[in-house]
Amino acid sequence: MNMPYLREQTSKEKTRDLASSFPSRKLVSFLSLLLILLALPVTIFLVNHQQIFTGLALSTDSARVEAESASLSGPVTTGYDQNASGTGTTANYIQFGTTTTSGTGSLSTLLPDTTSNIHIGLPFDYNTTPSAYTGKVDYIWGSQYPQQPPTGVFHTFYVPYDRDDDTRWYKAAHDITWWKTNHPDWIEYQCNKTSVAYEHGDTTLVPLDITNPAEIAYMQQTYVDAALQGKLLEFPGAKFEGIAFDNPDYQNAGSWTGQRCGHYDTSGNWIQQFNGTSNDPAYRQAIITWTKNMQACIIIIPITQCLKIFPLIFPTQQIQIPY
């Protein structure tokens, strides 16, 4: 077998080959360093977010314990309705509060029967019309067309639960200047004690103290009762079937909550309420208490009892929100 002649490299050739390998080695080292530098921010990002998620999980767990230990005011009724799923021997619905008639509670006749098939609801109806959604949609959470149509669609009125609404959309609302003049002690601030705790970066909705019974009465009279009784100036005579409270968030951190911390009293003294963080037990408890108080105002007791601290001219009657 003929073998090719293998010539041994000279010293000069060895030196040249060795020198030629230097650029490739430098390139590999540079690429390795570049890869490490690119991966470093990603690693930091993942570590930070893992810490955030852990903190949020702890906050959520705490909130769950507090919510599960809370109790709502008034009686709780379970019962059977022929339009609900199940049999007559099972509790097909649960109702909080009292009923307007004697006997056991019943499902609202205003709610569409969704026992069978898949039904459609809309978060808002700003970009549609009653003629377009009638016969296709059963429920509209934030509706601008109460009683359109008068039957077949359940309309609820949208209310930011902890803020006065936008004066551009509702004539009964008030801006920050009005609140500073008339009820400066209702305005919520961040922990720096100077920044108003606006939520979602929206400075047209004034954040109010939900622990103040007078504030609850104001929201009840201005929005809740007016919507249910057809007294909203924007929808004269048109009654909503229910109320859609928005934005109760157990995590008191981020622009979506405004990071509430407290307010000033009528003498200008600072009242510390919350810590402005995602894990804020006092803030969570304030939401739970607000829920109980608002439920009592809407469902259980005459409205005038909600206005003992906030004296407004208001009819004595009981209002119920269908369940």
Write structural notes for this entry.
This protein is an alpha/beta fold and 323 residues long. The chain has a domain of 221 residues. Helices cover 33% and strands 11% of the residues. The chain is built from five helices and eight strands, in the order H-E-E-E-H-E-E-H-H-E-E-E-H. A four-stranded parallel β-sheet has the order 3-4-5-6, with helices on one face. A two-stranded antiparallel ribbon has the order 1-2. It has a two-stranded antiparallel sheet with strand order 7-8. A hairpin with a 5-residue loop joins strand 7 and strand 8. The radius of gyration is 31 Å and the shape is globular. It starts with 10 loop residues before the first helix and ends in a 23-residue tail after the last helix.
SSE layout and pairings?
Blueprint: H1 11-69, E1 76-79, E2 93-96, E3 121-124, H2 130-133, E4 139-142, E5 154-160, H3 176-182, H4 213-229, E6 242-246, E7 262-264, E8 270-272, H5 281-300
Parallel strand pairs: 3-4, 4-5, 5-6
Antiparallel strand pairs: 1-2, 7-8
